[in-house]
Amino acid sequence: MNDKNSWKKYQRWLIGALLLAAAAALIYAVYRPRPLIVEVATVSTGTFEQTIEEDGRLRPKSRYVITAPTQAALLRPTLKVGDTVRSGDVVAILEPVAPQMIDARTRTVLQQRVGSFEAARRTVTAQVQQAQTALAQAALEAERAGKLAQDNFISASARDQAVLTRQAAQQALEAARAEQGRADFALAEARAALARAEPAATGQNMGRWDLKSPVDGQVLKLHQDSAVAVSAGQPLLDIGDTAAMEAVIDVLSGEVRQIQPGALVQLSLGSGAPALTGRVTRIEPVAFTKVSALGIEEQRVNVIVSLEPVATEAQRLGDGFRVDARITVFKQASALLVPTAALVRDGAQWRVFVVEAGRARARAVQLNDRNADAAWLKEGLREGETVLLYPGSMIADGQPVRLRNGPKAPG
């Protein structure tokens, strides 16, 4: 009987123990910390770069603006934007401006003026002939007076008077000829004024100017694409060589001091086009004001970048193309790198979460420098360690974690 009671007590105790164990297992399963699914990366050694990223535009290294040398009529251009030209090719043709239209009354006045100047010229011509006759007579008198003076038939003063008379006649003839020249010019001016209303002879190209290209290149811009009257100095077309291009990158004046001539620049045209490589050749010493997309006025400085030669068939470049520039201002090889996304601010210091045995362990780190993608570590981590990316407020020291994917290297 006692054995039977003892067995029943043992059974109840065993069942109670099993129930307590099941309850404990259930409580642990419900309330135990569950591992968080996280993304991780691997600490690696690589090249650390500090860059400035801005946008800019392309332009030819040399641009030639063809202008009108004088007021003229431009013939309709045959060239189009993008056409190839050679040095010495005619790129524009100028002709004299058509004369101003003259009404019938003005034409009659001009005709009468021509007649008046023709009559004046005939008068002056007659005066020239009269002066020539007077000079011939004075020359004979002077010659006769000289012979008579030698034979003492007349006095020396009479001879001198004859010589002076001949000189006066000579001067009168020169004055008459000068008047004749003035009359000729006045008559030519009157005829030219009348000729402005007369149509030019067919087939004549009097005064045509052929403007030629100074270099080999392409037409970049047509300022005038039709026949039109142009003034002196007016631009007609732009010519440049798109095989020799440079980029103009506007950089904030506060950042431009970090850039040195010769700095490496990577330029992207977008749309899957291959990147271009260039070097900083010049930093302009003058800043200008530019309004940003947020409406903020910024002081910017133009940085000129010379592009390395590229094959025309591999890359088509054009004047004014937009580019995204990445200017390298600092570069360090064999640097210990960790993704910037793994850093967490800890007061004035930085820390990361390292994955060890399935748990996240907080660890303080010191940085040499950092950029948008990676940080250059000074101490705190070793190459090959795995760190959490984008640690949120739910991550604490010792938190169980489960990796979503394999570790990725920074950069």
Topology (SSEs and partners):
Elements lengths: L1 H30 L4 E7 L1 E17 L2 E5 L4 E3 L9 E2 L4 E6 L8 H47 L5 H40 L13 E4 L4 E6 L5 E3 L4 E6 L4 E8 L11 E5 L7 E16 L5 E11 L14 E18 L4 E3 L2 E8 L2 E12 L3 E6 L6 E4 L9 E5 L8
Parallel strand pairs: 1-21
Antiparallel strand pairs: 1-20, 2-11, 2-15, 3-10, 4-6, 4-9, 5-8, 6-7, 8-10, 11-14, 12-13, 12-15, 13-14, 15-19, 16-17, 17-18, 18-19, 18-21
Helix pairs in contact: 2-3
Task: Write a structural description.
This protein is of the alpha+beta class and 411 residues long. The protein has four domains: 36-49 and 333-403, conserved putative lor/sdh protein from methanococcus maripaludis s2 fold (Beta Barrel), CATH 2.40.420; 52-60 and 241-331, Elongation Factor Tu (Ef-tu), domain 3, CATH 2.40.30; 64-97 and 203-240, RNA polymerase II/Efflux pump adaptor protein, barrel-sandwich hybrid domain (OB fold (Dihydrolipoamide Acetyltransferase, E2P)); 104-195, Helix Hairpins, CATH 1.10.287.620. It is built from three helices and 21 strands. The protein has helices at residues 2-31, 104-150, 156-195, and strands spanning 36-42, 44-60, 63-67, 72-74, 84-85, 90-95, 209-212, 217-222, 228-230, 235-240, 245-252, 264-268, 276-291, 297-307, 322-339, 344-346, 349-356, 359-370, 374-379, 386-389, 399-403. α2 runs antiparallel to α3. The protein starts with a helix and ends in an 8-residue tail after the last strand. The mean pLDDT is 83.
